[in-house]
Amino acid sequence: MSIFEYNGSAVVAMVGKNCFAIASDRRLGVQLQTIATDFQRISKIHDHLFIGLSGLATDVQTLYQRLVFRHKLYQLREERDMKPETFASLVSAILYEKRFGPFLCQPVIAGLGDDNKPFICTMDSIGAKELAKDFVVSGTASESLYGACEAMYKPDMEAEELFETISQALLSSVDRDCLSGWGGHVYVVTPNEVKERILKGRMD
Amino acid sequence: MVAADSRASMGGYISSQSVKKIIEINPYMLGTMAGGAADCQFWHRNLGIKCRLHALANKRRISVSGASKLLANMLYSYRGMGLSVGTMIAGWDETGPGLYYVDNEGGRLKGDRFSVGSGSPYAYGVLDSGYKYDMSVEETSELARRSIYHATFRDGASGGVASVYHVGPEGWTKLSGDDVEELHYHYYPVAPAIAEQVMEEATAE
Q: Its GO biological process terms (chain A) (predicted)?
């Protein structure tokens, strides 16, 4: 098994009408053994910017800590929050700094930019940005996630419908992956509020 | 009592959640599947054929000891060629109930209880702590179901449906087939979270 499949993960983000949703599974495993069923893969950078990290769990935690540090410095200097596009460039630069000994994670970034326009992107482990207008996926269940999102996604969904769609896509994909699942964690972000929900899924 | 999950996986991908891992060799003998699915299915069917031929030639049913020996010898002759079979042969013969563990190395062990497969350590934990030699059928089937459930929870390569079969003097019967998702929420119901602070609508003044 490759090092990216050591812990197991699934992260997906989708764009809706003036909102976005980002979801992940909750399993932390060591190859086939499940260690925890409440692992946090999605972290808040600020109220309108979230990052979900898939891949090796130790790098997920370390990279998140470093990114929060950099964002706090930015807030002190610029006296404002980072725009999602800027943050994506920052993540890309930080990952490429370690080009010959990389962080073994694939981030999924989702945020609301100027005029509350939703922004999503994903990257590989050395910082190659991939912007998308509809959805981005990452993790051991990524192939299933691509299929499920492609089938279920519609443009301009409202927050409630977006929540349903992303939850169904996540749960049906992780049910085809041995290494991810054991519940789901979904954040739906609109200009006024952030709704965090835990999904009841298959625990096998 | 024989129980199994129903997941088949290829590396990380789950190829099926509905595989029959308890193979019905004949109406009074069961075999379990662990390891390579094709190997287990083929060799169990082959064993069924040999058991039938034995019954026709000797005018009486083969014993569980004999059937497991046939399988073990066959697997021993293919030793080192890459077969992957970890199976338990369970049945009822003139000497009473019989349980044997047989694997692709040609090993064959008689015992009271076994657990086989990638999820076996987790199942052993539950099985060993709950086992007594004199248990009723209901207690035993519940222990078997729980063992499979706990293995599916912790092991990534186990899941799907927990099937439980009972082997008695009249042969085997299937007792239950429960989806492990339902078993999880049955054993560990989700208590509704009590909100610490509830937001209320501001009244217009």
A: proteasome-mediated ubiquitin-dependent protein catabolic process
Could you count the other beta carbons within 10 Å of the beta carbon of residue B3?
28
Q: Which domain holds residue A61?
A: 3-199
What is the tens place of the pLDDT at every residue in A126-168?
999 999 999 999 999 999 999 999 999 999 999 999 999 999 9
B32: its two tokens: 């379990």
3-state class (DSSP) for residue B145: helix
A179 touches chain B (CB under 8 A): yes
Return the beta strands (E) in chain A as ranges. 10-15, 20-25, 28-30, 33-36, 42-46, 49-55, 105-112, 118-123, 129-132, 135-139, 184-189, 194-199
User: Is A204 within 8 Å of B153 when comparing Cβ atoms?
Assistant: yes
Q: What is the pTM of this model?
A: 0.87
Q: Give yes or no for a contact between B169 and B92, defined as CB atoms under 8 angstroms apart.
A: yes
Q: Does the residue A179 lie in any domain?
A: yes
Provide the CATH number for the domain around residue A186.
3.60.20.10
Does any domain span residue A75? yes
A30 touches chain B (CB under 8 A): no
Report if residue A204 sits inside a domain.
no
Residues B135 and B133: their CA atoms lie apart, in Å, by 6
If residue B12 lies in a helix (H) or strand (E), which one and from where to where?
none
Q: What is the ipTM of this complex?
A: 0.83
A55 and chain B in contact, CB less than 8 A = no
- Kindly list the residues from chain B whose CB atom is less than 8 angstroms away from the CB atom of residue A200: 185, 190
Q: How far apart are CA A171 and CA A27, in angstroms?
A: 13
Count: domains in chain A: 1
**A56 is a domain residue:** yes
